[in-house]
Each structure stands twice: as C-alpha cells, then as structure tokens.
Amino acid sequence: MTKRTDIGADLTKNQSLVMSALAGSKGPMSAYSILDEIRSDGVRAPLQVYRALDKLVEFGLVHRLESLNAFVACQHPACDGRKEKTVLFTICETCGGVQELVKDRLSKAIEGLARELEFSPSKSTIELRGMCSACKTATEN
Description:
By secondary structure, the chain is α+β, with helices and mostly antiparallel strands. It has helices spanning 13-23, 31-38, 46-59, 104-116, 133-140; strands spanning 2-4, 10-12, 62-65, 70-73, 86-92, 98-101, 124-130. The strands form 3 sheets. Strands 6-5-7 form a 3-stranded mixed β-sheet, with helices on one face. A two-stranded antiparallel ribbon has the order 1-2. A two-stranded antiparallel ribbon has the order 3-4.
C-alpha cells in the first residue's frame, strides 16, 4: 500500500507512519522514540523504522541531525522534497527546538570554498548548537 504525498513521492504504510510521527513532533526524534510512538500501528522492529527513515531522507522529506542522532521532518517551505545542497540547523540546548534554514549566501560560500579546495561536495549539513532567542529572553527575565 502506498500513499501519494503532495511532492509526488510514493510512501509505504511504514514511511507514512514515520513521517506522521515526525511531522507531529515538537522536536527531533530518535528512531526508537518513533518506534515507541507507532508501535500500536503495527510497526514492531527498529529495522522497519530505520528503513522508512532511510527512504524519507532520500526523498528529502526528513533530515538527520548527526549531533543528536535524531531526525526531523523537513521544515523548509521551498524544499518541496528537493535535496538542498546546504542545510543549516539551529538546535537549542535549552528547549530542544530545531530550526531549519536554507540560505543561498551560505550555500554559495561553501561552494566557493569547495572549489578552492578542488572538492565536489554532494551535500553539506551544518548544525549550530546554542540557545534560541525565546530561551535567552526567558533567562534574562
């Protein structure tokens, strides 16, 4: 059984369940926390979740946050399932919030640096960890 998404990717039942769990989450989720959330829908093994995540990442619908070993649904409105070359994430160490940014200026700077190094990157992911403005404001009051 497959489900058609608005970007045109065919999702299996497990991929749809994993995508729904991530889309409804307030923050990044590990594969095991996703499994706990969708276990009642018939997904029983971690391998089922990892396979679904691999495909969702391949489709550009989900991003892996390396530093957290966790996943988030793509938040960038212009992505439309495209695989952006450079994606920047800000990760708040206080509230756990994650914001996804795709900036042309940053992409061009990285591409220029790669050219200087005679390197051909397929993609780059940058993770900035720190404190978001809302948490900073809350600690100042």
